[in-house]
Structures are given as C-alpha cells and as structure tokens.
Amino acid sequence: WFVLRRYGIQGLQAYIRNHCRLAKRFEGLIRKDDRFQVINDVKLGLVCFRLNGTDRLNQDLLANINTSGKLHIIPSMVKGQYIIRFCVTAEHAKDEDIGQYLDSTGQ
C-alpha cells in the first residue's frame, strides 16, 4: 500500500521498467566480454553471471567487488557452479551508474 501511495501505478511501472532496462544494459556489457558468461535469461532486474574459470576465481572476484564498497553483490549456486548475482535495486539508478562501475574496474 505504501509503495503504491508513494509512486502511484504509473510511477511504480516506470520504476520497474527502469530496473529491467538497466539489468539488460548490464547483461549486454557482460556478454561483450569473452571472459564472462551470463547464466540466466534476464527478464527482470537480475543478472546472474560468472567468470569463465573455477569457482575460486569467481569467489575472489565477488570478494574484490564487495570489498571495494561500490557495490554489494551476492553469490549463489546453480547446477553446482558458483555464480554472481547482480540485481538493480537502487531507487534512482541510471545508465551512468552501470557504465561507471564497469569502467572503474577495467571490465
């Protein structure tokens, strides 16, 4: 109820569409880099991905990302493989936020 009162139906639709669009943008950037693979079919604001390589390599990548303090990303296991879950959740997230982080990590 409070969410609907805060945003209204059109505002909530725009909020969700923006997060879906940003997730697709992130997915596109990840797919352009041969070092990574996208694990899920991105339909909402969630992108599951991993570095090609060992689970240890992916655990180290996640630890480095989270230690940076710029993002907080969580892991999961899918079909016995360690994956990294990127979810767009910031209320005022925009295109520059996605590109800025990737540019600053050299990805």
TrEMBL record:
The keyword rRNA-binding appears for this protein: no
Keywords: Pyridoxal phosphate
Descriptive protein name: Threonine aldolase
Family annotation (InterPro entries): Aromatic_deC, PyrdxlP-dep_de-COase, PyrdxlP-dep_Trfase, PyrdxlP-dep_Trfase_small
Species of the source: Timema podura (Walking stick)
PANTHER family: FI02861P, GROUP II PYRIDOXAL-5-PHOSPHATE DECARBOXYLASE
Cofactor: pyridoxal 5'-phosphate
Pfam families cross-referenced by the UniProt entry: Pyridoxal_deC (PF00282)
Domain of life: Eukaryota
Record keyword NADP present: no
